[in-house]
Write a structure and sequence with these properties.
Low-confidence stretches: 1-7, 189-193
Number of strands: 6
Shape: globular
Strand content: 25-35%
Strand order of the largest sheet: 1-2-3-4-6-5
């Protein structure tokens, strides 16, 4: 993870959570960067952005997103705990998926499946799945329609914080169209030319 370094006074448990995020080993297609965290939502926060790229297609962006970890020792009632993961994931899909009535449910199941596949505990999950269809007209009429899926979700993580970042990156890879990797298998880089 590249980005600014952790400075200032933080509770030990927040510092451990940041270390767990930094130590998480993501697929090589996922490029993670630490960015400024939102202010005033919680006393402590860290934010990361990610791009999923295809090395086979010259680093073409396949998906992008943001993972924010909030920590509030007062444990706000809606969170049902001291921690909150707030996420966003977006990717362009095939135009024929625009009218699929199950697209939202499938997008949400990808998140839940990613968390469950890593055997992570979580509560108070909430979110939306949005499809954005863009059609061009007049001087732009020669452009093909595009469809984007956006998954916005939050949940209260239980247990190992780094695993929740891994599950979110699994969601990003899924909406990017990458095949899942079994536990312990490392993706090989694309062919060199």
């Amino acid at each position: 993870m590249r980005g600014r370094s952790l400075t200032g006074e933080h509770p030990a448990e927040f510092a451990r959570a940041i270390s767990a995020l930094r130590e998480a080993r993501l697929r090589p297609e996922v490029r993670l960067t630490e960015v400024p965290a939102p202010q005033r939502i919680a006393p402590y926060a860290v934010a990361l952005t990610a791009d999923v790229v295809s090395s086979a297609a010259g680093d073409e962006e396949l998906a992008s997103g943001r993972f924010v970890l909030l920590h509030d020792p007062s444990a706000p009632s809606p969170w049902e705990g001291e921690w909150r993961a707030v996420t966003f994931a977006r990717a362009e899909l095939e135009p024929e998926l625009a009218s699929d009535p199950m697209l939202g449910a499938v997008g949400w199941s990808w998140l839940v499946d990613a968390l469950d596949a890593r055997q992570l505990g979580y509560v108070a999950e909430a979110g939306t799945v949005t499809r954005v269809v863009s059609e061009s007209f007049a001087g732009l009429a020669d452009r093909e329609p595009t469809v984007e899926m956006e998954v916005r979700a939050s949940w209260t993580p239980r247990g190992e914080i780094g695993g929740h970042l891994l599950a979110w990156s699994d969601l990003l890879c899924t909406i990017a169209g990458l095949p899942p990797l079994p536990e312990g298998v490392v993706a090989l880089p694309g062919q060199r030319r």
